[in-house]
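Aim 2 progress. For DUF1439 domain-containing protein, the working sequence is reproduced below.
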Amino acid sequence: MFSGLLAGGVFLSGCAASPGVLAQQGYTISQAQIQGAVARKFPRSYGMGGLVNLALADPRIRLKPEHDQLNAVIAVVASGPLLQGRSYNGALDVDFSLRYEASDRTLRATRLQLNGLRMEGLTPAAEQMLQQYGTTLAQRSLQEVVLHQLSEQDLALTDGLGLEPGQFTVTDKGLVVQLKPKNAL
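Predicted C-alpha cells for this construct:
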C-alpha cells in the first residue's frame, strides 16, 4: 500500500536535476512542496440538500511519520437556511495516506480517518448534524481526489530506465519516494 504525496511537477524534475538520485532509486519531497500541492485543490464547496453550505479552504498539512500518514486541518465555514442565515467557522481534521494509480499516473488520497469536525458557536443539535456529515465531508473533499497527475513527459526518464514510483514513506523530512522496476511486486 502506498502512502504519501507527490507534489506538483517535482516528481521527475527532482530526478532529472540530480543524477545521484536515480542511483539511489529514490528522493525526498519536502513538507512545503506537499503543502503546495494540496493547497492548489482548494477552496472547495459542498451543499447539504440546500440547507447547509460548507466552504472548505486553507488546508494545513502536517507529516505523521509515526503512522506513515499525512494530516490535513482544513478551515470550514458553514452557512445556509438551516443555520438561520448565520455563518460559523470551524475546522475539519483528517489523517490520510496516498496511493499511486499507474493506469492514469495519478496520486490520490486514500484511507481517510476523520479526527473531527469542530464548529464554533453552533447549537448542540446543529453540531451533531454536522458531525454526522463529517466523514462524508472528509471523503468528498479528499478521498480519491487526484492531487497530481504525472505527464508522459514526467515519466519519460524513469520509463526509459524501466522504473516507476514504488513505496512512499512519510518521514520527519518529508515524503521519501522509492523507485522500483516496472512490474515488480
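The chain has a mean pLDDT of 76. This observation will guide construct design in the next reporting period.
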